[in-house]
Recover the amino acids of this structure.
């Protein structure tokens, strides 16, 4: 049974109280995703490419009519130090935060974490100017 049709099979809010332990095929990379190894009973994204599907309005409700791919756009660190992935729906633009899973691809997670450093929103030459203005030699090398 695919994730898009689960809301038709179970009563409203079923996945808020029950584990989501079905195997599914990732709509982005095509890999088979199994619940084992997630470190949680609620697998909600592919551990290979970190992509999810927009099936919930609230966690576990399966009420979203969109069904679009939720692409990973960033990571953030919660108060307790746990990492979470920010997903954005490619169809409606909705943003969601999801806990990382124990078997998530570490290279993909680090790639997301380093994206702001690799692509700053300003030219790197500005760093040299600001360093010089603050009394440094202006060199970032």
């Amino acid at each position: 049974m695919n994730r898009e049709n689960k809301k038709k099979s179970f009563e409203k809010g079923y996945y808020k109280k029950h584990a989501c332990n079905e195997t599914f095929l990732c709509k982005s990379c095509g890999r088979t995703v199994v619940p084992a190894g997630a470190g949680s009973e609620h697998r909600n994204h592919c551990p290979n490419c970190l992509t999810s599907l927009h099936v919930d309005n609230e966690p576990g409700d399966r009420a979203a009519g969109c069904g679009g791919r939720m692409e990973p756009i960033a990571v953030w660190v919660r108060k307790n130090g746990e990492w979470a992935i920010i997903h954005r729906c490619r169809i409606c633009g909705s943003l969601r935060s999801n806990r990382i899973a124990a078997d998530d691809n570490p290279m993909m997670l680090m790639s997301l974490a380093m994206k702001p450093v690799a692509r700053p929103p300003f030219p790197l030459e500005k760093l040299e100017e600001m360093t010089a203005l603050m009394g440094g030699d202006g060199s970032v090398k």
Observations:
- The beta strands are 24-25, 32-33, 52-53, 69-77, 83-89, 95-99.
- Residues 74 and 112 are 5 Å apart (CA to CA).
